[in-house]
Protein: Putative membrane protein
Amino acid sequence: MGMKTIDSSKGKMRNTYMAILIPLGIAINFVGGTIASKLSLPLFLDSIGTAIVAAIMGPFVGAVSGVGFNIISSIVNGNILGSLFGICNIATAFIVGFMARADKFRTIVHAIIATVAVAVANALLGAPIAVVVYGGIQGSGVDLLVAGLLSFGNDILSAAFLARLPINLADKGIACFAAWLILKRLPENMRNLTGGKRANADA
Structure:
């Protein structure tokens, strides 16, 4: 009876935090992405919320928050095809979320590994989407690097990928380290919400 009560309590707490954190992650992504766009920064800043939610709630909840942002953002901006970048947010959520679930998002080394993995995944996935949706030039700070690489004889897909690699290292570094720092400072009960073995090991 006691175990069932505890499990029920944990389930209700997870559902409550899920209802709070999914829209919060969407809002953080929206604010960050808007700032980067308005200031034409060579960053995206639209996956910080995704990484935070994934680190706390796990990969699938993080992915829901990330894709939710991309869908809402594409509707607001009148570019439905832009929602395809939700694939990049899914990659971010899965890498950070599964690392957190496996208890491999605790140290600064873990945060660095997550940054590199997320950056490479986003560059690989984002480059072809940018070429298909925007022709490689999407009206952001990334375009300067793309144009520079094109001038050196790179094809548009290679230029889009190579331009995104260093930018994603910085951009996803901000997202991953923000998620890591927040996760470290959360109370223990909120660091056991990712599901899987990690929660059982820490309980």
The longest helix spans residues 2-38. The chain has a mean pLDDT of 88.
